[in-house]
Amino acid sequence: MQDQYITRRHATTTFIQGRNTVRHTRRSLGSISQIVIVSMLTLVFGLIYVAEGTKATSFDYEISSVESEITEMNAKKDDLAVEKARLTSVAAAKTSTVAAVMEDAAVAGYATE
Amino acid sequence: MPRSNIQRSNVRYSAPNSGDAANSHHRIKILKKVVLVTLAIIAVRLFAIQIIEHDHWVAKADEQHTLLEAIVAKRGEIYMMDGDEPAAVVLNQTTYQIIIDPSVTEKDKIQHALATYAATYQTADLDEVYSEEGLRYAIIAKNVPKSIADQIAAEEISAVWFAKNNQRVYPEGDLASGLLGFVNADGIGQYGVEGSLNNLLSGKDGLLKSTADVNKVALSIGNDNVKIPAEDGKNIVLSVDRGLQKGVEERAINAINNTAASNASVLIMNSNTGEVLTMANLPDYDPANYGNVTDASAYVNYVTDDPYEPASICKNFAFSAAINEGVMTPDTTFFNQHYEEVDDWKIWNAEQRSSLYGTLTMRQALYWSLNTGSIYALKLLGGDPTRINQQGREKLYDYYYNKFRLGQATGIELIEAEGYIEDPNEGWGRDSTYANMTFGQNLKITMLQTATAFSAVINGGYWRTPTVVKGELVDDKIVPLGSTSTGIEDKILSDETSAMMREMLINNRDYKVRDGTDRPGYDVGGKSGTAQVVRNGAYDDTFAELVGSYIGFVAPAGEMPEYVIMVRMWGEGQSIGSGDAMGLFDDISNYLINYLKIKPGA
Q1: Is B146 close to A90, i.e. CB distance below 8 A?
Q2: Which end of chain B is more exposed for a tag (fewer CB within 10 A), N or C?
Q3: Within an 8 Å CB–CB cutoff, is residue B89 touching chain A?
Q4: Would residue B36 count as lying in a domain?
Q5: Average pLDDT, stretch B577-581?
Q6: What's the angle, vertex CA B342, arms to CA B441 and CA B568, rounded to 5?
Q7: Run of H or E residues at A40
Q8: Hey, which residues 184-223 in chain B have their CB within 8 Å of chain A?
């Protein structure tokens, strides 16, 4: 705040020769200015809050999207595990092309000493 | 400054009329009052909403912007052993139902999509669905995997939509269905492992409570957000060997097809650890389509759930008791006159050949499965070879019930029935009842109880709790699951008793060695049992219906046995002798030797 020096030479009735008299006054904002500034500050803070809130929400959407993706991938993993289990099942192995060309097992022979 | 020449206008300002002013004031006063009253009403209403009805409106608001849902735990998978590696036999899969609205006429597109992608999953005939007037909802395919559902969804048929559901998948089809059980529509395990270990398999659902936006996306803002993660069910590894189970089931089906039997159950367990290697029940069913079963008895695990009379197999227990008490050896003799008269009942031997009349050893009695021999063992337990007495009954009861734990649940991880062993002193006809019990009648025990007790007879006398669970699969490693079974180990017979019983059981099959059924280099012992059935409160002496059983062990010659095999075959109104069951035992014992690559002994 800038101080202003006002000559009181003509303002006083008790003028003393060779001496300046000054009155120190502080220039302050008017009430309207204060309202405007407070409103602006409120607006700015509000905007910051909304921006942060939106940012958090966008993260939430991202999290939701990632979770959906995880669910999707888990479902695919389960599908593949099931497919693997079916392909390696005893029934599948028995009817496989490899099994078709195998010979029947004979009684195993063991060397005796 | 020159004087300006300003022309004054002649406007006359008249004073307002005093009557109009009064009216205006009056109107303003009324307006003020209206405004005040309105404001008062609003204030009162606001007070009511914000103070008096605060909780109600908060709850309403919460309903709209709070997301509350259960995080469903993943049901545990079930594995069997494939050699040393676990192999999945029960898994989970997210599948879809395809639903259509027949009022939207896109039949050709739907038909084409179904035929192209999901023909095997189709459950309804489209012509029939479209012929029904006014129908707006029809399920036309079930259990459709996600990849196929995605392909159909890509066709963008407006009459088609999808319903997601979690499905239990059994990649081995009907393998071991009686052991595994199934999961019902409510997600609850029924019968078998699915039923008995439902708590371990189902895990614990979690909870998500969160502020949500209009799209029902959970938001991190809010003070009351709660996320409790789900605890997935445990992946359980069974001790059952998948390949052995399959091979045994195939042989049991062959046996059913080649005899008059309609049912067969087979149990293979490790006699030294109590681990179950095979538990087969035929006929079986597909657990994934359990609803198609027309006879609920298909769900029953006859090995654990159905106490029955295993007949002469119980002679092993009566003989073991007498030997262990030091009152009998395999060479002890008795006089066989083909029958015994007890409580005015004549109890006959099934084997009546004349060459067996006279003095025989107990080894011969077991070989020919003579009831008179096992009754003699009971007499010896009582200390009086001429009659059955209270001491003999009480000692036999002590061995049957307390030592062999017959008529009691074994403590395996499955649902099991107990059966019963008659009290030695209370009731009518105790002597004849106990005489019958020596050859496996007048009692009810399960196959599992029988095989567990038989394991103790041949393994050196140790009764061990049977188990069907090897552990839990964590990061592809099998770790102990904790106390799912009682884990009892009780020495109930002496080593000598066990050795004598093994020798007699091997002797029982000497003709099997001679005819080449049992291979050289292996000790195969066994005992048959043919049970009469009870009709109208008495045993049916016409033998129109019989239940055949056989129990035995396989070991390299000269070594302690490791595997016990028990077979039971039956059919309503069918006379299934122990010979049928023994045939299946012979087949399985040889298969077991090959499958497990058991090397012959010296």
Answers
A1: no
A2: N
A3: yes
A4: no
A5: 86
A6: 15
A7: helix A31-87
A8: 213, 217-221
- Could you tell me the residue range of the domain that residue B503 belongs to? 244-595
CB contact under 8 A, B92 and A78: yes
Domain match, B462 and B587 both: yes
Tell me, letter by letter, the H, E, C secondary structure of B560-580: CCCEEEEEEEECCCCECCHHH
Is B183 within 8 Å of B137 (Cβ atoms)? no
- Minimal C-alpha gap between A36 and chain B (Å): 29
The distance of B94 to chain A (nearest Cα, Å) reads: 6
Q: Are residues B541 and B461 in the same domain?
A: yes
Q: What's the mean per-residue pLDDT of chain B?
A: 90
Q: Please answer yes or no on whether A60 and B217 come within 8 Å at the CB atom.
A: yes
Last residue of a domain, one of B214, B234, B254: B234
CA atoms of B408 and B400, how far apart (whole Å)? 10
Buried b or exposed e, range B552-591, using 16+ CB within 10 angstroms: bbbbbeeebbbbbbbbbbbbeebbbbbebbbbbbbbbbbb
Whether B518 and B394 map to the same domain: the answer is yes
Give pTM, 2 decimals.
0.80
Residue B363, CA distances (Å) to A89, B319, B509, B510 in order = 46, 10, 12, 12
Higher local confidence (pLDDT), B242 or B107:
B242
d(CA B338, CA B295): 42
Using CB atoms, which residue from B87, B221, B597 is nearest to A108?
B597
User: Contact at 8 Å (CB) between B485 and B304?
Assistant: no
Q: Which of A53, A60, A82 sits opposite B91 (nearest CB)?
A: A82
d(CA B378, CA B432): 11
Asked whether this complex has an ipTM greater than 0.85, the answer is no
Last residue of a domain, one of B183, B213, B234: B234
Tell me if A64 and B242 make a contact (CB, 8 A cut-off): no
Q: Which of A78, A88, A103 to mutate to test the interface with B (most CBs of B within 10 A)?
A: A78
- Mention every residue, 6+ apart, whose C-beta is less than 8 A from residue B347: B339, B340, B341, B371, B372, B375, B432, B435, B436
Of B218, B246, B600, the CB nearest to A110: B600
Report the range out of B223-232, B341-350, B466-475, B527-536 with the highest average pLDDT: B466-475
- Minimal CA separation from B212 to chain A, in Å: 10
Q: What is the pLDDT of residues A52-85, one digit of tens each?
A: 878 878 888 888 899 889 988 888 888 898 888 9
pLDDT per residue as tens digits for the range B246-277: 999 999 999 999 999 999 999 999 999 999 99
Which comes out higher in pLDDT, residue B550 or B65?
B550
A53 vs B contacts (CB less than 8 Å): 221
Confirm or reject contact between B136 and chain A (CB < 8 A). no
Residue B295 falls in which region: left (phi positive, over 0), alpha (psi -120 to 50) or beta: beta
Residues of B in contact with A79 (CB under 8 A): 93-94, 145-147
For chain B, what percent of residues have pLDDT higher than 70? 96
Q: Are residues B229 and B324 in the same domain?
A: no
Contact check, Cβ <8 Å, B221/A82: no
> Is the Cβ pair B171, A86 closer than 8 Å?
yes
